[in-house]
Amino acid sequence: MSTASGDPTTGTADFSAAPLADASPPEEWESGQDANTGQRTTETNGDEQRPTAGELTAEAAASPQPGAALPAYRPTRGRYRGSSGGYELDLRVDVDSVPGGPKVLRKVSGDFFSTGGATKAYFGSFIVHAPTVSWTAAKVVIKGVAAYTWQTTHTIVRVTVPRSRANQRPGAATVEFLRPPGHLGATYVCPHISPYFRTIEWEQDSVTGAVPFLSYDTGSLPQPANSPARVLTVPRAYAEAGIELLVSGTANVIANSQNGWTNTELHAAMETNFSLWRNAPQWKLWLLVASRYEGTAGVRGIMFDAADAFQRQGCAVFYDLVQGADPESQRAMLRTYVHELGHSFNLLHSWQKNLAQPPAPLGGNNGFADLSWMNYAQNYQPLNGNGGAAAYWGAFPFQFTDNEQIHLRHGFYRNVIMGANAFGTGAADIEPELFDEPLTDESGLRLGLRADKQGFTFGEPVVVELKLETTDLRGRSTHSHLHPDDELVNIAIRQPSGRTVLYRPLLRRCVDQDQTIRLDTHRPAIYSSAYIGYGRDGHYFEQPGTYQLRAAYLASDGSRIVSPVLRLNVRHPVSQTDTQLAELMMGEEQGKILALRGSDSPSLRAGNDALQEIIDRHGTHPFAVYARLAKGLNFEHEFKSLSPDKSELTVRPPDPKSGIEQLTQVVKVSEQGKGVDNLTLNLATRRLARAYARQGDLEEANSTLDRLVRHFDTPAFKPYVVDAVRDQVDTTKARLTAEFGS
């Protein structure tokens, strides 16, 4: 094969490298899979995959019986592949419809790969958004100006596809790249390889006792009149978007723990048990059907692989919350599976599209009006009419929006394929205007953003407090998801360099459950504390200087509530010891451990060693309280890990003695106002009480909780805050007595 020239659109056609009859069998033929189950339906011989003798594709099923009229033309759509001049082109043609098939988006797109010897590497992508299409009895010609991921003078793309009948094999597409006004560059002849635009291998495992979702009949419950009743599986739902989801191998059943799954355990489980996983972009993803999520109520699923260099390869759904054999439960389960897998394709929530890079347009009412798999049913709020879950299901056609389908089918390669660009397409840059104050605000809500201290030492974890309150004496109802990890609150950070970035949580979770609260004179505000020093893009406070922060909360009715600007100073280290401690705190692994509130993951061993060094050698330094907090929370909790063959669940039991040793110091220093913020102190104290209860000392556990009430029961705190803490303590006491009492 000839050597690549540097731009795959400019060379002279090399037909020897792109024969009309493909010299090597394509990866898949049209039959590909059963769209309902996702299982392959072809006979294979090595890499070759051809239809079985009795198999018909959905398009060929309309072929006439003997003596009938001539078959209709085969739709011009799907995936084509060819080579020329040291490059391989994966072409996607989306200009013709299949009866009952995916919607036509009228786009042409493609990905280029440079080839040399036995290697292949991604080069770039293009898309023609608005082509002109002409049909004759012999051919279809598609032509338009393309947008590329690189600079080229050959901006015009012309695709010619011979027309064929429904009972004939589709012809090869000839792709020409032209420099205006019409100078021909490279030409590729691309045989048709699939009616799908992309093909993904999906591996699914489940824990003991969890029954994975199979199918849902959309006619079981009322649905829109324009949405035909059909049986939907997860692969079928993606097939309707033009995406082939192939179930890989056998679904494994792995051991379970009744105590639920934490972020760190899910991350470790993926590293150990995703048999298709490797450190490279690939069209492969993993889903674990786990029992429940430990840490936040209402989490139905999570796309947890958002912290390393090869993201979006793993997600989970939580069976305890989504299970049920009735139609409502099956319908919701289908939406949860499709939703979480959608995040692996780099699809954001409906209300977050404008936070991607580059920003995508929001749907109506800040995205809450989207009828999409990527919206929450309870969040649905059209501009006119009633919203909520009932309205969503009454109007939802079980489809992605047009913009989401464009991304799935035609998005640039690295923006879609698992393991390439990070979630949100990988860039943290945002438009500061997204956080401008609204021209009018009649929401009746106010958002506050503050920190316990005016300045932070370089390397010190940055924690902020969010406060949502009502300004309407009559009261307002909204949701209680105030933590930025729940993704209904976003925090923008203007760094000293002038660059504005968005805090993106390390592990994003879908709090897909209605948690409506009433803010009024009895409970005028709610609070949340968030560590925002480290996220999916790494450390956000990497240099001394002045930072400006602003938060935005998306209310239940679609209102966007923006906080005032918070200015934080990160001070320069003043001694050699401060510099050394900053280096110990600012490692990537240390950032992950602090964000995860501790971890036993082998991949974070160096980070744990660094935090232990801070405790051992600098135990009286202010940074030690954060190291003790991460260590103490981790000791107090068990840690689950799976064997590589998925046959054995190893549980490292809680170590309450070590947890007490570390958390006691955290609580003591923080009660004196020299440690963590009050909300984190609340968490640490309740976990300390739990450690005492694990040891069988309920008396000391209750005494610890009583001290927490006394800490807050002062004039420095509002009465409703004290009441909330007292209620929380009473609930914790009852839970500990039920779990550990005799």
Question: Could you characterize the architecture of this molecule?
Answer:
- The protein is α+β, with helices and mostly antiparallel strands and 742 residues long.
- The strands form nine sheets. Strands 3, 4, 5, 6, 7, 8, 9, 10, 11 and 12 form a ten-stranded antiparallel β-sheet that branches. Strands 13, 16, 17, 18, 19, 20 and 27 form a seven-stranded mixed β-sheet that branches.
- The longest helix has 22 residues, at 719-740.
- The protein is built from 15 helices and 36 strands.
Brief write-up:
The radius of gyration is 28 Å and the shape is globular. The longest helix is centred in the last third of the chain and has 22 residues, at 719-740.
Could you report the average pLDDT, rounded to the nearest whole number? 84
Strand content: 25-35%
Shape: globular
Distance between the termini: 77 Å
Largest sheet: 10 strands, antiparallel
Number of distinct helices: 15
**Computed CA radius of gyration, to the nearest angstrom:** 28 Å
Q: Determine the structural class based on helices, strands and strand pairing.
A: alpha+beta
**Number of DSSP strand runs:** 36
Given as residue ranges, the uncertain stretches (5+ residues, pLDDT < 50) are 12-33, 40-68
Helix content: 10-25%
